[in-house]
């Protein structure tokens, strides 16, 4: 099952979700991430990459990218699209090929503001922990909950956890 995590800049929450899901269930899921408006030369946030590495999760291949890559005709077909920031949730999304299920799982931006680095690192750790908990629920769902006909409701139900 292909899952796309979307945020505005694709540098923190969506990158964390992509790396976590790919590490947690590579046999059942292939995760991607993208931003609705990544800045020119946008890169994944260094603290996010550090947290992933500390957890033993590969950061190879992680990069910030536009969601336009996934709306193209030759893009991988997505089964589920999850917005992880409130800004992206309110935006008009591209017409995704195949009409995938979608859900919004909102998280505060750990990179926002000008807090000291230690405080930001803690925000990244907490965000990664919250994502891990919700992704754990997703990967442990029985197969019938992940079928296309019921996936929309299942993904939205997980937003409440």
UniProtKB/TrEMBL annotation:
Residues forming coiled coils: none
Entry keyword Cell wall biogenesis/degradation: no
One GO term (biological process): response to arsenic-containing substance
Protein name: Protein-tyrosine-phosphatase
Lineage: Bacteria, Pseudomonadati, Pseudomonadota, Betaproteobacteria, Burkholderiales
CDD domains: LMWP_ArsC
Record-annotated Phosphotyrosine protein phosphatase I domain positions: 1-141
Keyword terms of this UniProt record: Arsenical resistance
Source organism per UniProt: Acidovorax carolinensis
Pfam families: LMWPc
């Amino acid at each position: 099952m292909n899952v796309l995590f979307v945020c505005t800049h694709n540098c923190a929450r969506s990158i964390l979700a992509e790396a976590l899901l790919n590490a947690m269930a590579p046999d059942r899921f292939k995760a991607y991430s993208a931003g609705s408006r990544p800045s020119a030369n946008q890169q994944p946030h260094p603290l996010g990459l550090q947290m992933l590495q500390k957890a033993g999760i590969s950061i190879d291949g992680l990069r910030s990218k536009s969601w336009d890559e996934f709306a193209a005709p030759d893009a991988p077909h997505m089964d589920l699209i999850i917005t992880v920031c409130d800004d992206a949730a309110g935006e008009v999304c591209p017409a995704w090929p195949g009409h995938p299920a979608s859900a919004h799982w909102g998280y505060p931006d750990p990179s926002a503001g000008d807090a000291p680095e230690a405080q930001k690192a803690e925000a990244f750790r907490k965000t990664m922990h919250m994502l891990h908990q919700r992704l754990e629920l997703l990967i442990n769902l029985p197969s019938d909950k992940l079928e296309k006909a019921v996936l929309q409701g299942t993904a939205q139900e997980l937003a409440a956890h």
